[in-house]
């Protein structure tokens, strides 16, 4: 080192506080949603009504919740391909009520927690890759659902139907569920556990150096995912007034798409359910728009995939032009 | 000497997969008399080669750090498009070439989305797969005729060279080529480097964008070709023909010891994985399980198989960084 | 010379207020007989160390000597195979990082532990967040973080900023504040100054002394012997996993310490320089990168070692990256051997004979799971292709040759580089750069966190290359290296070259570099620094 005496060391110079950076992820997700909403409104002016919005929300609700489930796991840098399986199990458990009480709902949720726990234990303590674990448990959970109910059918408890399709104090329950989900997420994000999740998702090894119980956080994320996916199953069952052992598969990749469109990084640690909900609602709008077109099935398939691609490609292009890295 | 040791360590996972396959084979032989018969083994080889072709591109893509979900739709495309072209009177060989080239181009679209636009592979290939599906639906509506498979496809799929099925021979040749490309060419090294750490790869002068684009293009072409022979074997081409192969293509490479995060694995491992998976597929139904139990058993065996074949270090702690930290010596 | 005589010899006349009360297990951190192996690699073979509370204790040793492992055990990150660690007479309980932290141990890890996606405040109070029913109280968190930063004189860090937006030096400083904030009984600084400018380094060392004055045992790991002499009361030298030297810094001269660290003598750190030629290999005229860098003029002659000096983050990185093709020049004229050179990718630069050794070898330099052989040939594969296939015989020959040139241990050609020590890993990155004799070699802080022996090897290697006509651009965060190794240093500040110092003219010294870097900044305090 030198003996040179430093004049007013630059280290001590306070730096001007920066302005908070613009939350581009939120802006993008919001813009996408608004554009689609406007398009849908133009196509179907009747939508401008709380009841109608509630109905639209109803159909999108299972996807919103499954996507939220996926987000929990992606936040800790995992991936859950078994969310569809858990959803299917939950629908058949709920529909096994055959007119029974709301206890069946609780049972379905508990089963969801259990299956999520199984995933979490295999990934955390056992230390297998989440992608591989959930690829296998996807098949296992689908099998369990089939075991409980070999074909579509059954009757969910009236409470499940009311939860999915009813209203409370004039407000559709579907709206309340989404609002509740967002509030829960905001609390979670600001909670100490939320900080742990972000830490583990950002960099598990550094999180460990800070004394974070990494494996426990991973297990908890999968449990939360299981719970949310099961809740999606309960609502799906209430919506269709039956259970379906094969309904889950269609949600798996869509849930990942919703997470990505929302701007949650598949590399973990960035994003959240708020963004995902917007994206899941965007996907619901796409389906609604496509349905409103009243076209052949190939047109609707092309339109929904095409719109998905347009969204992600635009996002990618914008990110590239603004010089930021994307997921 | 150390080179040999390193090679052995690298292939330990493949050895594990081979052992897994052997156990399944022994169980099958003990359980059912005809399991080890020549006919059945020939049959198994044919099935395994289907998985092998479907997983060929997937292996390259995954080694390069990506994932291709459009595989099943491109398989369906290969079968259906061939039937449609031949029904239209096109030369059959030319028709096969057209199918494979279109598959390659579709793969290229995947690659461009992933590399140029920076879209997550899982979403890009999902969307492109959806578009292919839409196209197939449209074709199905326009041409209501049953998609009878042209003779060239069924010929390749059912032909035999002496006791060995033609597809198995083709598969062997392709596997050797892929193995040489991965192990002995600049492109192969570049794929591994890109998959393990693309910053290092770029700074070392590797055009990672081009490398990844090629892997997706190969995946598209290989999937379309798989569609041709699979439809030839089944004798019909229909929309869902590719569906089982999404799961199978990924499971085969994972059982074969490749890391789903990229940079580690070999196509030889995938070949063994495909054989193990096919054995499992043909073994489980022998136990008279109902579809539900079959599905559960299938998932469980795969879980155990992956756990056994991928030795410790797949993800101790959590993710790759943790593993590296554990392995590195004191500094 | 005191060579190991059981537990801490004598009280040792520490300096100033830190010369604490009488020694004894109740006032000490005592490590005895520590052993640890990773697989077959025995890293610690019985380490002993005694550090008294209220003192700064330097821990020295070359890369691979076992310092990091020792620290990881202290911090609860790994567990020892044998031996004990006791704190104030009480054994350190097992139970990982949490238990170690509860016992009062805080480690500033070399690899930094802050979480990029959390804010400065959230990192500072990680696991100590003020909360109500589990929900973090945001305002209180901000306030408390601001108080902490002010208390340790680091209020230039904004508590609300995301750590991902901080530069390396700021992250390092945050890390130190975080450890200090916990009021630890044992504070470990693991090369906490290696990434810092001299002003920030002295802040860290000063904080270390103050923590010691408050009764903490500070364990200082550094490769800079000057720092040891400046602040340490005692020192322990590790070599190959055992304690080889214990005593006060003033008992030993530099040569003794270095010899003990290496187990051999290093004749000289900086090799004698041969005068560079006259041909210009790289010339930059009015070069610009984005808005922050340039306009910039720079010239490197064949056989010259040209340094980039100045405080950290003044654009040196951008210059190297643009020359290497990793970022693009947005203006100006760049020529290599008289030919226009505007590489769009590193591949183009490499083909033009320009090789780059990036600063972060773990993230940007190495494929960690791959062998030395594969890593060293990675950027020269195109030269190994014969009839479409890689000529593996030639590859092995060439790799063995460059591995030998860089002084990598023989017979480890096929070992994954993750199994090598930090110094040897750095040599692998260099081996790649030397695979085909480069026209221009760009070195980005290639000696950071590298021990003296390896440093000497690297300097000798680079000097030898320069003697053969390679032009070298050398950036280092260590001023003494710039002053003693380079023929000429371009001092940079705020994205421009502020002056050129020639060794031949006798104007090149640590002081002149620093003066040029600082006087410039003093000149325009009026305007806000663009802070890269």
How are the SSEs ordered, and which strands pair?
The complex is a heterotrimer of chains A (327), B (331) and C (532).
Chain A: H1 24-43, H2 50-75, H3 83-95, H4 103-123, H5 130-148, H6 158-165, E1 167-168, E2 171-172, H7 173-190, H8 192-202, H9 204-209, H10 214-240, H11 249-262, H12 273-292, H13 297-321
Antiparallel strand pairs in A: 1-2
Helix pairs in contact in A: 1-12, 2-7, 2-10, 2-11, 2-12, 3-4, 3-5, 3-10, 3-11, 4-5, 4-10, 6-10, 7-8, 8-10, 11-12, 12-13
Chain B: H1 2-31, H2 38-63, H3 71-87, H4 92-115, H5 121-142, H6 151-158, E1 160-161, E2 164-165, H7 166-184, H8 186-196, H9 198-203, H10 208-234, H11 244-255, H12 267-283, H13 291-309, H14 319-327
Antiparallel strand pairs in B: 1-2
Helix pairs in contact in B: 1-12, 1-13, 2-7, 2-10, 2-11, 2-12, 3-4, 3-5, 3-10, 4-5, 4-10, 6-10, 7-8, 8-10, 11-12
Chain C: E1 28-38, E2 41-52, E3 56-60, H1 67-74, E4 82-87, E5 90-91, H2 96-102, E6 105-108, H3 120-124, E7 131-132, E8 135-136, H4 138-151, H5 168-181, E9 186-190, H6 198-213, E10 217-221, H7 225-231, E11 234-239, E12 242-247, H8 254-262, E13 280-289, E14 293-301, E15 305-309, H9 316-324, E16 331-336, E17 339-340, H10 346-351, E18 354-357, H11 361-365, H12 372-377, E19 385-386, E20 389-390, H13 392-406, H14 422-434, E21 440-444, H15 452-467, E22 471-475, H16 479-485, E23 488-493, E24 496-502, H17 510-523
Helix pairs in contact in C: 5-6, 13-14
Which tags fit this structure?
heterotrimer; A: 327 residues; mainly alpha; ABC transporter involved in vitamin B12 uptake, BtuC; two-stranded antiparallel ribbon; 2 strands; globular; disordered N terminus; B: 331 residues; two-stranded antiparallel sheet; 14 helices
What does this structure look like?
The complex is a heterotrimer of chains A (327), B (331) and C (532). The N terminus of chain A is likely disordered. Chain A contains 13 helices and two strands, in the order H-H-H-H-H-H-E-E-H-H-H-H-H-H-H. Chain A is an all-alpha fold and 327 residues long. Chain A starts with 23 loop residues before the first helix and ends in a 6-residue tail after the last helix. Chain A has a single domain, classed as ABC transporter involved in vitamin B12 uptake, BtuC (Orthogonal Bundle). In chain A, strands 1-2 form a two-stranded antiparallel ribbon. Chain B is mostly helical and 331 residues long. Helices cover 75% and strands 1% of the residues of chain B. Chain B is built from 14 helices and two strands. A two-stranded antiparallel ribbon of chain B has the order 1-2. In chain B, a hairpin with a 2-residue loop joins strand 1 and strand 2. Chain B is globular. The two termini of chain B are 27 Å apart. The C terminus of chain B is likely disordered. By secondary structure, chain C is α/β, with parallel strands linked by helices. Chain C folds into three domains: 156 residues, P-loop containing nucleotide triphosphate hydrolases (Rossmann fold), CATH 3.40.50.300; 170 residues, P-loop containing nucleotide triphosphate hydrolases (Rossmann fold), CATH 3.40.50.300; 70 residues, no CATH class. Helices cover 32% and strands 24% of the residues of chain C. Chain C has 17 helices and 24 strands. A six-stranded mixed β-sheet of chain C has the order 6-9-10-3-11-12, sandwiched between helices. In chain C, strands 18-21-22-15-23-24 form a six-stranded mixed β-sheet, sandwiched between helices. Chain C has a four-stranded antiparallel β-sheet with strand order 2-1-4-5, covered by helices on one side. Chain C starts with 27 loop residues before the first strand and ends in a 9-residue tail after the last helix. The N terminus and C terminus of chain C are likely disordered. Chains A and B meet through helix 5, helix 9, helix 10, helix 11 and helix 13 of A and helix 5, helix 11, helix 13 and helix 14 of B.
């Amino acid at each position: 080192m030198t003996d040179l005496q430093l004049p007013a060391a630059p280290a001590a110079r306070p730096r001007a506080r920066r302005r908070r950076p613009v939350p581009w992820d939120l802006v993008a997700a919001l813009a996408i949603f608004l554009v689609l909403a406007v398009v849908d409104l133009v196509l179907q002016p009747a939508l401008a009504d709380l009841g109608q919005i509630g109905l639209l929300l109803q159909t999108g609700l299972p996807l919103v919740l499954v996507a939220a489930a996926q987000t929990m796991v992606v936040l800790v840098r995992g991936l859950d391909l078994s969310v569809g399986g858990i959803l299917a199990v939950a629908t058949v458990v709920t529909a096994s009520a055959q007119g029974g009480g709301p206890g069946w709902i609780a049972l379905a949720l508990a089963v969801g927690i259990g299956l999520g726990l199984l995933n979490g234990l295999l990934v955390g303590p056992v230390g297998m890759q989440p992608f591989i674990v959930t690829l296998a448990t996807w098949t296992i959970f689908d099998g369990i659902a089939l075991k409980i109910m070999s074909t579509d059918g059954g009757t969910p408890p009236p409470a499940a139907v009311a939860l999915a399709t009813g209203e409370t104090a004039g407000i559709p329950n579907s709206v309340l569920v989404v609002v509740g989900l967002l509030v829960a997420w905001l609390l979670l994000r600001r909670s100490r556990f939320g900080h742990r999740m972000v830490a583990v998702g950002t960099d598990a090894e550094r999180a460990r150096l800070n004394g974070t119980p990494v494996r426990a956080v991973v297990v908890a994320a999968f449990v939360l995912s299981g719970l949310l996916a099961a809740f999606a199953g309960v609502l799906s069952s209430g919506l269709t007034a039956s259970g379906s052992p094969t309904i889950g598969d269609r949600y798996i990749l869509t849930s990942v798409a919703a997470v990505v469109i929302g701007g949650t990084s598949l590399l973990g640690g960035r994003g959240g359910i708020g963004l995902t909900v917007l994206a899941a609602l965007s996907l619901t709008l796409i389906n609604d728009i496509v349905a409103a077109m009243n076209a052949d099935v190939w047109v609707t398939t092309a339109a929904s995939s095409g719109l998905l691609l347009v969204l992600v490609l635009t996002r990618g292009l914008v990110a590239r032009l603004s010089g930021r890295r994307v997921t | 000497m150390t080179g040999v040791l390193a090679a052995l360590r690298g292939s330990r996972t493949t050895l594990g997969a081979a052992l897994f396959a052997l156990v399944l084979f022994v169980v099958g032989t003990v359980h059912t008399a005809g399991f080890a018969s020549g006919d059945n083994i020939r049959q198994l080889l044919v099935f395994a080669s289907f998985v092998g072709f479907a997983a060929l591109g997937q292996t390259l893509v995954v080694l390069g750090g990506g994932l291709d979900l459009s595989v099943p739709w491109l398989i369906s495309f290969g079968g259906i498009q061939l039937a449609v072209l031949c029904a239209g009177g096109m030369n059959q060989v030319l028709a096969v070439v057209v199918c494979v080239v279109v598959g390659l181009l579709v793969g290229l679209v995947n690659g461009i989305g992933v590399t140029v636009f920076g879209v997550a592979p899982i979403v890009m290939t999902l969307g492109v797969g959806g578009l292919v599906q839409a196209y197939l639906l449209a074709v199905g509506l326009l041409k209501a005729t049953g998609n009878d498979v042209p003779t060239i496809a069924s010929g390749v799929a059912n032909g035999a060279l002496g006791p060995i099925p033609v597809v198995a021979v083709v598969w062997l040749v392709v596997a050797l080529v892929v193995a040489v490309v991965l192990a002995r060419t600049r492109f192969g090294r570049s794929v591994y480097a890109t998959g393990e750490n693309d910053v290092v790869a770029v700074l070392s002068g590797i055009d990672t964008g081009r490398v990844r684009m090629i892997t997706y293009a190969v995946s598209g072409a290989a999937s379309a070709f798989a569609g041709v022979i699979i439809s030839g074997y089944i004798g019909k081409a229909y929309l869902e023909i590719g569906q089982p192969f999404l799961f199978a293509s990924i499971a085969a490479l994972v059982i074969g010891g490749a890391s789903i995060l990229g940079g580690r694995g070999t196509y030889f491992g995938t070949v063994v994985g495909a054989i193990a998976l096919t054995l499992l597929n043909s073994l489980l139904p022998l136990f008279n399980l109902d579809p539900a139990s079959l599905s559960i058993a299938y998932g469980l065996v795969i879980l155990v198989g992956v756990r056994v074949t991928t030795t410790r270090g797949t993800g101790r702690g959590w993710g790759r960084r943790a593993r590296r930290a554990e392995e590195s010596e004191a500094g | 010379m005191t060579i190991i005589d059981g537990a801490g010899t004598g009280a040792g006349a520490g300096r100033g207020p830190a010369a604490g009360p009488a020694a004894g297990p109740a006032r000490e951190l005592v490590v005895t007989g520590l052993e640890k192996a990773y697989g077959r690699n025995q890293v610690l073979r019985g380490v002993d160390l005694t550090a008294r509370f209220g003192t700064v204790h330097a821990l020295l040793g070359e890369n691979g000597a076992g310092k990091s492992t020792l620290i990881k055990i202290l911090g609860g990150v790994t567990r020892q195979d044998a031996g004990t660690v006791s704190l104030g007479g009480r054994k350190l309980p097992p139970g990982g990082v949490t238990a170690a932290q509860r016992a009062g141990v805080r480690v500033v890890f070399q690899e930094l532990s802050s979480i990029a996606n959390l804010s400065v405040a959230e990192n500072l109070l990680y696991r100590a967040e003020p909360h109500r029913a589990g929900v973090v109280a945001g305002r209180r968190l901000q306030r408390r973080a601001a108080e902490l930063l002010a208390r340790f004189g680091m209020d230039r860090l904004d508590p609300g900023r995301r750590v991902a937006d901080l530069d390396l030096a700021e992250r390092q400083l945050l890390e130190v504040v975080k450890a200090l904030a916990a009021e630890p009984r044992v504070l470990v600084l693991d090369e906490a100054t290696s990434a810092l400018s001299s002003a920030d380094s002295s802040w860290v060392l000063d904080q270390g002394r103050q923590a010691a004055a408050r009764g903490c045992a500070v364990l200082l790991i550094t490769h800079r012997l000057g720092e040891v002499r400046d602040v340490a009361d005692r020192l322990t030298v590790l070599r190959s996993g055992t304690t080889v030297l214990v005593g006060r810094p003033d008992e030993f001269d530099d040569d003794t310490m270095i010899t003990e660290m290496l187990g051999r003598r290093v004749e000289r750190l900086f090799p004698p320089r041969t005068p560079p030629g006259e041909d210009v290999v790289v010339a930059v005229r009015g070069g610009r990168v984005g808005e922050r860098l340039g306009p910039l003029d720079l010239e490197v002659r064949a056989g010259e070692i040209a340094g980039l000096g100045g405080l950290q983050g003044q654009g040196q990185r951008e210059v190297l990256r643009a020359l290497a093709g990793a970022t693009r020049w947005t203006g100006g004229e760049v020529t290599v051997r008289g030919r226009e050179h505007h590489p769009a990718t590193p591949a183009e630069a490499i083909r033009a004979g320009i090789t780059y050794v990036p600063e972060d070898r773990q993230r940007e330099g190495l494929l960690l799971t791959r062998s030395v052989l594969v890593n060293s040939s990675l950027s020269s594969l195109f030269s190994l292709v014969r009839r479409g296939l890689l000529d593996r015989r030639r590859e092995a020959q060439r790799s063995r040759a460059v591995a030998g040139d860089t002084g990598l241990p023989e017979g480890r050609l096929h070992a994954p580089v993750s199994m090598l020590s930090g110094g040897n890993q750095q040599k692998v990155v260099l081996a790649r750069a030397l695979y085909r004799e480069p026209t221009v070699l760009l070195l980005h802080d290639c000696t950071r966190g590298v021990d003296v022996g390896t440093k000497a090897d690297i300097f000798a290697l680079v000097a030898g290359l320069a003697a053969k006509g390679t032009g070298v651009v050398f950036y280092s965060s260590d001023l003494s290296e710039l002053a003693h190794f380079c023929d000429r240093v371009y001092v940079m500040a705020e994205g421009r070259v502020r002056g050129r110092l020639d060794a031949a003219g006798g104007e090149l010294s640590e002081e002149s570099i620093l003066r040029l870097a600082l006087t410039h900044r003093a000149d325009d305090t009026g305007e806000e620094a663009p802070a890269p």
